[in-house]
């Protein structure tokens, strides 16, 4: 599904080229649950942004479902991003002025999903995450764990095949973090491919594969 070959990402400073990723080869099959770990600044978020089609500024090849991503036109890449990827961030990135319901609805509006279908998808998600009673509240009226559940609901509303989660439990206490990881495990069982970056070793135990990065490279790649 995802095949990265010899990916280099670098920035040009005045005197030298600084590599953020160097020679990364990585193949991820549909249905895997992959955890990226490694010290801060090692390139985890950079790699996830490349995988999620948010960063085009790199060298090497990236094939998604056998199609070369660098060869795609911007429009094609952007519709692929919208159709196939859901993104979850450490800092939730919910829209403060919108209710829980409206936050979950946003990506569906971009995808031109009909009103009745939107209602049914959101009702299912609210039910699944036990947030029905909270649907008219605003993000600031929720706990961190609840905000992250809304972030997940929003990310999966469009039924993406790949879920990218960048330090998704970084702001949560351990019980909330566990709840989020259980949701990921369930989504993965239903067939969603999950790629998470985390500093928490216990989060890796929910996955099927652990990749440790060092100095912009893959240092270890272990099946769990
Ligand atoms: N646009 C950019 N310009 C300059 N440096 C950058 C840019 N993007 C990333 N970097 C640098 O690349 C390195 C890798 O960053 P990245 O965010 O991918 O690391 P990370 O492993 O996700 O770290 P963390 O665990 O702290 O989130 C960092 O040293 C960062 O400062």
TrEMBL record:
Annotated GO molecular function terms are: ATP binding
**SMART domains annotated for this entry?**
AAA (SM00382)
Name the InterPro entries for this protein: AAA+_ATPase, ABC_transporter-like_ATP-bd, ABC_transporter-like_CS, MacB-like_ATP-bd, P-loop_NTPase
Domain spans labelled ABC transporter: 2-224
Q: Does the keyword Transcription regulation apply?
A: no
Query: Which UniProt keywords are listed?
Result: ATP-binding, Nucleotide-binding, Translocase, Transport
PANTHER family per record = ABC TRANSPORTER DOMAIN-CONTAINING PROTEIN, LIPOPROTEIN-RELEASING SYSTEM ATP-BINDING PROTEIN LOLD
So what family is this one in?
Belongs to the ABC transporter superfamily.
Provide the protein name: ABC transporter ATP-binding protein
Organism name? Mariniradius sediminis
């Amino acid at each position: 599904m995802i095949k990265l070959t010899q990916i280099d990402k670098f920035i040009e400073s005045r005197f030298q080229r600084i590599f953020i990723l160097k020679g990364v080869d990585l193949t991820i099959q549909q249905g895997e649950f992959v955890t990226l770990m490694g010290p801060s600044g090692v390139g985890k978020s950079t790699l996830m942004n490349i995988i999620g089609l948010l960063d085009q500024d790199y060298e090497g090849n990236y094939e998604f479902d056998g199609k070369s991503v660098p060869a795609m036109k911007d429009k094609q890449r952007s519709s692929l991003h919208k159709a196939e990827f859901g993104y979850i961030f450490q800092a939730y990135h919910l829209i403060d002025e919108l209710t829980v319901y409206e936050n979950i609805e946003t990506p569906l509006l971009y995808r031109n999903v009909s009103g009745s279908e939107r209602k049914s998808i959101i009702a299912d998600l609210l039910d699944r995450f036990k947030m029905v009673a909270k649907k008219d509240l605003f993000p600031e009226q929720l706990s961190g764990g609840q905000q992250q559940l809304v972030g997940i609901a929003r990310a999966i509303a469009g039924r993406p095949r790949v879920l990218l989660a960048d330090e998704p439990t970084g702001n949560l206490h351990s019980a909330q973090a566990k709840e989020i990881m259980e949701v990921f495990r369930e989504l993965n069982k239903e067939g969603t491919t999950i790629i998470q970056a985390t500093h928490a070793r216990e989060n890796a135990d929910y996955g099927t594969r652990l990749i440790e990065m060092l100095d912009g490279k893959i240092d270890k790649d272990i099946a769990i």
